[in-house]
Amino acid sequence: MDEALPGEPDGFERLWTPHRMAYVDGPARPVAGAREEQDCPFCLVPTLSDDDGLVVARGELAYVVLNRFPYNTGHVLVCPFRHVGDYADLNHDELVEIAELTQTAVRVLRSDYGSDGVNLGMNLGDVAGAGITGHVHQHAVPRWRGDSNFLPIVARTKALPELLATTRERLAASWPQG
Question: Would you call 137 a catalytic residue per the annotation?
């Protein structure tokens, strides 16, 4: 290290992710848990092209989108188009379509990515870990035997082997048409 440069060496490596600044202080930053539609990224995404919004598939009442901060490659979210904050407030038709899209996501993740398992879940409310509390969404996270490693634990870093745009294209191409 050049001693003439400012700063104290701390032994940490740096993983620069400038694309995430849009979520820190830019237009994509959720405001107050995105309780209002105008602040909600899940209300914005359907207005974008599939490529720009990272949309994998669209139904009549719900859609499938890549998580921009995935736990694993292929991590998708199933969201209703309607801005609704709680699972208990979804209507019957939304429940059915979200369940069907989630089921298809599981099938596609297994067939296209060869996942050994899939975590499914919803975080309802701040205390349950929901980052966006105003718009309910179902997570589908593919898992593989041996997919955990030391990076998230030791370095608080997640290694992802594929870019989001490539993942979107791959999943969209494998999604059944119909």
Answer: yes
